[in-house]
Amino acid sequence: MGQMINADGVELWVERRGEGPDVLLLAGLGDPAEAWQPQLDGLADRYRITAFDNRGAGRTPLPEGPLSVPRMADDAAALLRTLQIPAAHVAGFSGGSFIAQELALRHPGPVRSLVLMSTMARPEAYFRAMTRFWHWMVERAPDERAMLEAFFLWIYTPRAHADGMVDRLIDEALAFEHPQSVEAFQRQLVAFAGHDTLDRLGDITAPALVLAGELDLATPPRLGREVAEGIPGAVFEVLPGEAHQPFQEVPEVFNTRVTAFWREVEARE
Q1: If you placed Cys at 195, which of 53, 70, 98, 250 could pair as Cys (CB 3.0 to 4.6 Å)?
Q2: Please, how many CA atoms are within 13 Å of residue 164, restricted to the half-sphere of its CB?
Q3: 197-239, pLDDT tens digit by residue?
Q4: Domains identified in the chain and CATH numbers
Q5: What InterPro entries does UniProt report for this protein, alphabetically (predicted)?
Q6: Using one digit for the tens of pLDDT, what is the confidence trace for 87-128?
Q7: 73: CB partners within 8 A, 6+ apart
Q8: What gap in Å lies between CA 234 and CA 76, rounded to an integer?
Q9: Cα separation of 87 and 196, whole Å?
Q10: pLDDT grade, residue 63 (50/70/90)?
Q11: How many C-alpha atoms does 137 have within 13 Å on its Cβ side?
């Protein structure tokens, strides 16, 4: 069961599971901690998992003023301090991977390793156009179901649309008691669209695993490869047949791969 935690003056909703080495999970655009349910459930037998709602998502309030990726990275660092976690394996997907990059740059001490799923270092023209569409789509879709049906076209594989997984995820999102407001979605979107670490990736010192889905439309593999090439010693892998969120679609594959990576990091320390 989660709880609200004051992290250096910021109220963050936090979910924690399991025992073992610490893992911090960073969610992406619009997603609460529950987006990581397959990892909260599937990794808690080996790790102490911490996930939380970013500002403006789930139960964490939307603050006044603009959001930014560096500010959300500072939130993550403050949470680690508040929970007295000296070092954690950090994993982020999509916008959460942007936060993870900034966390490793701004607060390298507690970052034991990085897993960056569906990531990029600097938005390209296609991504900027896509996010501009999402910005007005969330306002003009005829209802919330129609908005999610459209949004998830960029997120999940054709397989997930065909086998009913997307329908189930939409039903769960519509039943969620803490839906994200249009304003919060748009402000998070602006923050993530402004992400840029391309010229600073060489300063990241944490061991890094960069994962990309072969079919990802939003952050295609070439963008993840660019991130991996910029981080000294980073490993880059493409997951065949997967899209933007394989940690949800094929959690066993994702969990097995990241667990192997964390064990490699731990063995080298």
Answers
A1: 98
A2: 0
A3: 999 999 999 999 999 999 999 999 999 999 999 999 999 999 9
A4: 3-268 (3.40.50.1820)
A5: AB_hydrolase, AB_hydrolase_1, AB_hydrolase_fold
A6: 999 999 999 999 999 999 999 999 999 999 999 999 999 999
A7: 99, 100, 102, 103, 105, 106, 107
A8: 22
A9: 25
A10: confident
A11: 17
C-alpha triplet 224, 225, 226: angle, nearest 5° = 90
Amino acid at 237: E
pTM of the model: 0.98
pLDDT, tens digit (0-9, with 9 covering 90-100), for 232-255: 999 999 999 999 999 999 999 999
Residues 6 or more apart in contact with residue 84 via CB below 8 angstroms = none
